[in-house]
């Protein structure tokens, strides 16, 4: 039986996921970011360092961040800087205490699908496909929306909008889309976040081709 991602050391698992997503074209060049809560320091999370090619990411290319203070707790290179989107991951972990991993990928299909949604819309309707069961949606003809956010130059401003909206209106699925950018997906484990990312990208591909 294949070893589950959660049976691997966290940093090693994240580097392997980065290689996998890069091969799929989901993390081209240095794009995208991955994070997971530290097993030994549950108040902190590991996140990919900024500006590194995801196809060549190593376990020591992860940085440990304090979820509450945003401070760097550990890094393996003095030059390493946290991902530009650390604030979004931080918002997810603060909003959803059961979340243990959060992945952000950049795909053509997701951008094409979101481009069809009228400007100003706050959600993307998802197709009522069987694959929604992978996001814990078990309805006969589900009508589910994916939260949609505008892409802003200052990423902390996006994180603030996510925090504000989700505090009053929790999302129906553990994912969100940023226009002209990509999806962010989270789960209660590395394996669950990985599986859910595959599900969300399947739905984005369907919408892009429909």
List the helices and strands and how they pair.
Elements: H1 10-23, E1 33-37, E2 44-48, E3 62-66, E4 72-74, H2 86-95, E5 101-105, H3 108-115, E6 123-125, E7 145-149, H4 155-168, E8 175-178, E9 182-187, H5 190-209
Parallel strand pairs: 7-8
Antiparallel strand pairs: 1-2, 1-5, 2-3, 3-4, 5-9, 6-7, 8-9
Description:
A hairpin with a 5-residue loop joins β3 and β4. α2 (86-95) runs parallel beside α4. The mean pLDDT is 96. The protein has a single domain (5-209), classed as Class II aldolase/adducin N-terminal domain (L-fuculose-1-phosphate Aldolase, 3-Layer(aba) Sandwich). The longest helix is centred in the C-terminal third of the chain and has 20 residues, at 190-209. The chain is globular, with a radius of gyration of 16 Å. It has a nine-stranded mixed sheet, sandwiched between helices. It has five helices and nine strands; from the N terminus they run αββββαβαββαββα. The protein has 210 residues and is an alpha+beta fold.
Summarize this structure as a short list of keywords or feature phrases.
210 residues, alpha+beta, L-fuculose-1-phosphate Aldolase, 9-stranded mixed β-sheet, 5 helices, globular
General form: globular
Low-confidence stretches: none
Distance between the termini: 36 Å
Number of strands: 9
CATH hierarchy: architecture:
3-Layer(aba) Sandwich
Helix content: 25-40%
- What is the assigned CATH homologous superfamily? Class II aldolase/adducin N-terminal domain
Determine and state the CATH class: Alpha Beta
Oligomer: single chain
């Amino acid at each position: 039986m294949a070893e589950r991602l959660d049976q691997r050391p966290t940093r090693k698992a994240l580097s392997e996921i980065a290689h996998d997503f890069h091969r799929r074209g989901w993390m081209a060049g240095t794009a995208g970011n991955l994070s997971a809560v530290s097993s030994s320091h549950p108040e902190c999370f590991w996140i990919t360092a900024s500006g590194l090619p995801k196809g060549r990411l190593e376990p020591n290319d992860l940085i440990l961040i304090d979820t509450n203070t945003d401070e760097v707790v550990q890094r393996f290179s003095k030059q390493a800087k946290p991902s530009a989107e650390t604030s979004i991951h931080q918002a997810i972990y603060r909003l959803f205490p059961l979340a243990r991993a959060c992945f952000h990928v950049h795909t053509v299909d997701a951008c094409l699908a979101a481009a069809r949604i009228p400007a100003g819309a706050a959600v993307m309707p998802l197709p009522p496909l069987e694959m929604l069961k992978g996001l814990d949606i078990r309805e006969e003809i589900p009508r589910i929306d994916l939260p949609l956010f505008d892409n802003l130059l200052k990423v902390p401003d996006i994180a603030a909008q996510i925090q504000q909206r989700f505090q009053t209106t929790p999302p129906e699925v553990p994912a969100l889309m940023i226009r002209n950018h990509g999806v962010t997906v989270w789960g209660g484990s590395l394996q669950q976040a990985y599986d859910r990312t595959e599900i969300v990208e399947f739905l984005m591909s369907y919408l892009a081709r429909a």
